[in-house]
Hints:
CATH architecture: Alpha-Beta Barrel
Pfam family, one: DeoC
CATH class: Alpha Beta
GO molecular function: 6-deoxy-6-sulfofructose-1-phosphate aldolase activity
Helix content: 25-40%
Keywords: Lyase
CATH superfamily: Aldolase class I
CATH topology: TIM Barrel
Order of helices and strands: EHHEHEEEHEHEHEHEHEHH
Family: Belongs to the aldolase LacD family.
Number of strands: 10
Radius of gyration: 18 Å
Largest sheet: 8 strands, parallel
Protein name: Sulfofructosephosphate aldolase
Shape: globular
Amino acid sequence: MTIATVSPTVLARPSGGYAMLAIDQREALRAMFAAKQSEPVTDGQITDFKVAAARTLSPYASAILVDKQFAWDAVIAANAVDPGCALIAAADHFTGSATEFVADVAIDDDVDPATVRAQGARALKLLVLWRPDEDPAGRIALVTDFVQRCRTNGLVSIIEPVSRGPRDGGAFDHDAGIFAAAEELGTLGADLYKAEVPTAGQGTDEEIRTGCAKLTEAVTGPWVVLSSGVPAERFPDAVRLACQAGASGFLAGRAIWASVVGSPTMADDLRTVSVDRLRRLCDVVDDAVSR
């Protein structure tokens, strides 16, 4: 059976911009909770937060990214996602190390494309680690396999290359890795490319715009920024600058909800602090893509 190709615009706002929420963080989210409490962080605590975040924030997002490990089944069972918000399933399996929450990534075979599509998914996402000391062939093969799985199952393919240091822990140029990853992986057929903000959003406006223009030149098709590593207060500007240089929006989590994790009034804070941040980012995207 041939399944029709799906456009990534199914994940976009009416403006054509992407304002997508990520709640697929795993051990990194556990660490955020652990920083706010003395008792061990349970899996249930992580799941409950993700379900609450999906229910509270999805009415304002054009799409939401959910992981299988902690949240997919619970979010589906709770019917927590607003009908107007597209579902993205994280299709990556993470292996940690003593120094990294995510040291290796593989396609998660427990995330069956046909099954999640039947449950409402419109897209799959794959994290890809770009290290300067590793053979590009492995990354290229991983992305090629992932894109083909998505196409076969009528799902939008999203890749998220992130710049990482060499295995031996040596020094490296983080921004150089962002650009090298885009040149290597940005033309392999993924429907949407998710990139780190150059300078982690801490450079000048012109430095960020220039870096984002390099990503636009390297990537075939639409691309969006993520918020990890960018100060939350700087992220709206980073999104605006990225869109001015050719990006189409964001797929982000930490800049929206990280500050409320572990708060004694977390449910209320999601409804106020996080909703306000997400709505502001939606306005930034709509304004930027309409110019």
